[in-house]
Amino acid sequence: MDSPHRFIPISEPLLSGNEAAYVSECVRSGWVSSLGKYIPEFEMRFADFCGVRHGIAVSNGTAALHLALVALGIGPGDEVIVPTLTFIATANAVHYTGATPVFADSEAETWNLDPQDVARRITPRTRAIIPVHIYGHPANMAPILELAKQHSLHVIEDAAEAHGARYQGKRVGSLGEINAFSFYGNKIITTGEGGLLTTDDDTLAEKVRFLRDHAMSPEKRYWHTEIGYNYRMTNLQAALGVAQMERIEEFIARKRWIAATYNQGLREIASITLPPEASWATSVYWMYSILLAKDFPLSRDEVMLSLRQQNIDSRPFFYPIHVQPPYQADISLPVAEDLSRRGINLPSAVTLGEEDIQRIVQAIREMA
Ligand SMILES: *Cc1c(COP(=O)(O)O)cnc(C)c1O
For residues 182 and 56, what is the distance between their CA atoms, to the nearest angstrom? Predict the structure, then answer.
């Protein structure tokens, strides 16, 4: 069945500002590698945006998570609690250090890490907790930070999906000890591939800068006191990032407008749950997401197929990590499993127009 309508992608970057000009300047000047003025400028702008002292740019969001863990001294024998309902990078970063990711369930209300389930999974080996702000909605941080304090654990925010979201008025990326962002092509802003760590801790910031550049001694070039990584960001990436930062507030406002427009069109359908926004949260709705109730007339996969036939892209929620081959565990995390089965991400690109959203809303109404 062919649709006469344009294809609506789940996501696409908007690069129509100063992106081309700044990248061209890197090419013209020859500063294309990991030295150049855009890198510190991007780091500073992003740190300011989050309200923290330090931003350290790296090659991608997974590298940012990995470096945060390494800088905190996490390694073999340690356990790190992560939500099972997240992108697999959160768990992989823990695995890279030799530590063990321990999976916790989600809250039904916010779809984020459930602090009560985290409490049940703390053991003498637990060293850190990584709350993820899933699909742009901040995790319930106060009880997580409280648990961490009681048990002397580190907290690393995985803010890869939530640039600009607020928890009790504070930007994500300013709540944990050291925090990770991603600038992959479908994130709130993009550098192509890219990542960044935020922290208020001068010592951790210095440690991360050192580790991202092969742990080269700051005093003596080509002298290495430990094993580091090449996790540097290029000036080309940072040039894109600076141009994207000029529009980040506009992108977030657009995401919130997209969510409000969908909500308006879908709120009367009783068998659909709209995305959460807790009273203490400002979501950036990275991916506008809905849950289908058990009594929705079509299955989740049938809904996605029907959208596809109408030239509308969509994505299923992440599969819980504890059911996937590398981390398969004989445990049940029922809330996350249920969310994963019933959740759909709908098109959320900042390039969406009113007519696009109305077309998607209409398609879903006809199935309900
Ligand atoms: C995108 C993402 C990452 C990884 O970022 P990359 O830049 O793709 O390495 C990590 N965690 C979450 C929750 C993400 O969505």
Answer: 12
Contact 193, 237 (CB under 8 A): yes
323 Cβ contact partners less than 8 Å away, ≥ 6 residues apart: 337
Please spell the DSSP secondary structure of 260-284, one letter per residue.
HHHHHHHTT-TTEEPPP--TTEE--
Instruction: Give the number of the atom of ligand 1 that is nearest the alpha carbon of residue 89.
Output: 10
Domains along the chain? Answer: 19-245 (3.40.640.10), 248-367 (3.90.1150.10)
Please give the structure tokens belonging to residue 13. Answer: 């970057």
User: Is the beta carbon of 160 within 6 A of some atom in ligand 1?
Assistant: yes
Q: For 145-191, write each residue's pLDDT tens digit.
A: 999 999 999 999 999 999 999 999 999 999 999 999 999 999 999 99
Is the pTM for the entire model greater than 0.85? yes
Listed residue (62, 84, 87) closest to 197, CA to CA: 62
How many CB atoms neighbour CB 273 within 10 A? 17
Nearest residue to 59 via CA among 191, 215, 204, 239? 191
- Residue 279, Cβ density class (10 Å: 0-12 exposed, 13-18 middle, ≥19 buried): exposed
Distance CA 328, CA 19 (A): 42
Hey, which residues does 82 pair with through a beta bridge? 103
Cα–Cα–Cα angle for 32, 34, 37, nearest 5°? 75
Which of 62, 137, 348 maximizes ligand 1 atoms within 8 Å of its Cβ, making it the mutation to test the pocket? Answer: 62
